[in-house]
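Posting here for the record, re: adenosine-5'-diphosphate.
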Amino acid sequence: MEKIVEVKNLSFKYGVAEVLKDVTFSIDRGDYVGLGGHNGSGKTTLVKIILGLITPDVGDISVLGKNLKKFKQWSKIGYLPQSLSLFNPIFPATVYEVVSLGLISKKKFPRRITKSDEKIVDNALQELEIIDLKNKLISELSGGQQQRVFLAKALVNEPELLILDEPSNALDSKSRNHFFDLLHDLNKKKGTTIILITHDIGHIGEHANKLLYLDKNIVFYGKLSEFCDSESMEDVFGRESQHLICHQH
Ligand code: ADP
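Prediction output follows.
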């Protein structure tokens, strides 16, 4: 099985505070990994390290078969932050402009959008059923629509790995369901590998095939089915919580 992400003996500190300790795991092509853990357990830090945004003190990391220190194909990785967290919602940009930004990162100078780029953007907007919003300002959209615009931006380069933060509960349930249906199709039909940071582990069994549960180090990593059958995980989570996580699986 081809490994998309390989993390070996990763440790990380912010100053003196140890946030990740001796973390080792790998993700295969086509996996859909739910990344769980309580607040402050190191989920975002782990994702930032994989995205090359922060450099670990200790450990070896490879992405798409290449050591992170030499990795350059960033357009093959899509990243979707939690709704609006990295974005000023009154920024005066249209849907089309925001999604085009996804393509610009891949370009060399001069960074211009061509006719064929416009087609790619249109296709992404069509796929996410937001083509009729193309010329609207981002600030005019609902939370669910904005989420889809940012997903389109993350998808224009057809990434092999998509890393995302679960949309906040502020989204209505219809938008959330639609969002998760899109992820499901991407994973199943296009084989896109997904890492989903989840803040509500009770839902993870509905979506992911693997669970990575962090608490500075790895509490559990493996298939959801193994998690659900594991007696040691019943000891850690309690029978009821284990059931809650597993009952949708
Ligand atoms: P999670 O995503 O699981 O909530 P984080 O990776 O964001 O966890 O944070 C892990 C720990 O690192 C927390 O205790 C948090 O307060 C701390 N932390 C996060 N970012 C920084 C930072 N930039 N500087 C110092 N400490 C940080």
